[in-house]
Design a protein that fits this description.
By secondary structure, the protein is α+β, with helices and mostly antiparallel strands. Helix content is about 55%, strand content about 5%. It has helices at about 15-35, 65-80, 135-155, 165-180, 185, 190-205, 215-220, 225-240, 250-260, 270-280, 280-285, 295-320, 325-330, 335-340, 345-355, 360-365, 385-395, 400-405, 415-420, 425-445; strands spanning about 1-5, 50-55, 55-60, 90-95, 110, 115, 115, 120-125, 125-130.
């Protein structure tokens, strides 16, 4: 399929430009239906599509090179008739294909000027490629979302106290709509570049290294992947499609998808069917309706979240990397210490302690299997310097242990109980201990 994009030729600064352009494109649309050749049909028997209009954008469509050139010639004659000029430098051609090179006959011109054939083009906010690559299509959205995250973090740093609720309210309102743009169409697939924007924002808030495992980040914050919301948006759009009139192009495109799904082809409709069947809503797909859409979407979102909880729990129990974290964290719920520990440096130290990214030897040389001596405590010499040794036993931090947490260290399970504690004072004391002990460790390593 050939695709041609043409920007508006009417000067946008003029107050008459919307009305003039509307009259112009209406004449083009009527003329295209009369003289157009080889348009696009969504299904046999349906009307041929020769052009798409949105605001002041015009896109010509054809299934053959000759058909597209015929439409360009008609467009050029219409422009001359109305004394308008098209900027050929901004007008582009795209040929959708599986691969290979363009043929010698696949060249197009407008008013004697040859038009450039491009491999990608951003139309209405979505980047189309010749192979309709989904990953390349959403990558610009991810880049915009990451930039917006940087801007959000920079602005929020001006506040002396930044709460979890404030940060993620900003993310959900300002950034999530950017990265989920058009997810009604592509949102039924989990896409890593989109999820990385979310995890990047979470790690920036937690002030932990980017290598910190995502499962720990989700666990302490009680957050869920953006895939949950993108699925909800896709299902919500499906309900909207079902209520559309039959002459609408989106409804006709939906019927084309249904035919593809019926014939066993993987498409948007088949992914939607699989999603509903997976979570026990196969009858909704068959009936094509629900009683209360809002209640159904809430129930579907709950099941999507439950599915991720199971995935999260399985990951914690199946990896040695999460063995310590899994000993005190079993539910994907927001931790109370975000509300209890107001001093940022204390909270940062506690977060790094919980997620195993403190600069302890057991963490720094976690994968240095060739030299087991590297993970030993620099002060004790014969003990592994991990979180349990750091909190409960190392004599280097005895004074801080006595001051902050000694009353909580009564038995062999004290570390787990202390990390699981959801009370205000123990959380604050543990955070203070982690900060002061890390600071003393740094001084000791410098003097050593």
């Amino acid at each position: 399929m050939n695709f041609f994009y043409c920007p508006s030729g009417v000067k946008q600064g003029c107050i008459l430009s919307p009305a003039l352009f509307s009259l112009f494109v209406n004449e083009i649309a009527v003329g295209m239906e009369a003289v157009g050749k080889h348009g696009i049909q969504l299904q046999p028997g349906l009307v041929e599509l020769f052009l798409l209009l949105f605001a002041d954008d015009l896109a010509l469509l054809s299934s053959t090179a000759m058909g597209l050139q015929n439409q360009l010639n008609h467009l050029n004659s219409m422009c001359k008739e109305h004394s308008l000029c098209i900027n050929s430098e901004k007008s582009k051609i795209m040929v959708f294909r599986k691969g290979g090179f363009l043929g010698k006959c696949e060249r197009w011109s407008l008013g004697g000027n040859e038009l450039e054939v491009v491999n990608s083009y951003t139309y209405l906010g979505y980047t189309f490629t010749t192979k309709l690559s989904l990953c390349q299509g959403v990558s610009p959205l991810a880049a915009k979302g990451k930039k917006a995250t940087y801007d959000c973090v920079r602005v929020l740093r001006k506040f002396s106290e930044l709460t979890r609720q404030t940060f993620f309210k900003m993310f959900d309102v300002q950034i999530q709509p950017i990265v989920l743009y058009g997810s009604e169409v592509w949102g039924l697939q989990r896409i890593d570049v989109i999820e990385k924007v979310h995890t990047f924002a979470c790690k920036r808030f937690l002030n932990v290294p980017l290598k910190t495992p995502n499962k720990m980040v989700y666990g302490d914050l009680g957050r869920y992947p953006l895939f949950v919301n993108s699925c909800i948006r896709a299902v919500k759009y499906w309900f909207k499609l079902l209520q559309m009139k039959e002459n609408r192009l989106p409804k006709q495109a939906y019927h084309m998808q249904i035919n593809m799904e019926t014939n066993g082809k993987c498409c948007w409709a088949s992914r939607l069917r699989d999603l509903l069947c997976k979570f026990g809503f196969g009858f909704v797909w068959l009936q094509k309706s629900v009683g209360n859409e809002r209640a159904f979407l809430a129930l579907l979102k709950e099941r999507l979240c439950d599915d991720f909880k199971q995935e999260w729990t399985t990951a914690l129990n199946s990896s040695e990397r999460f063995s310590l974290y899994a000993s005190f964290k079993s539910n994907l719920l927001t931790e109370n210490y975000f509300d209890f520990v107001k001093i940022k440096c204390f909270r940062d130290a506690l977060i790094k302690l919980r997620m195993g990214v403190l600069p302890l030897n057991a963490n720094r040389f976690r994968y240095a299997h060739e030299n087991a001596l590297k993970i030993l405590c620099n002060f004790c010499k014969n003990e592994i310097e991990d979180e349990i040794h750091f909190i409960c036993f190392c004599p280097l931090y005895k004074e801080f242990r006595l001051k902050y947490i000694q009353s909580y260290l009564q038995n062999d399970h004290s570390f787990t109980l202390l990390m699981q504690c959801q009370e205000k004072i123990p959380c604050q004391n543990l955070a203070a201990f982690a900060f002061h002990a890390c600071k003393k460790r740094d001084i000791y390593m410098l003097l050593k």
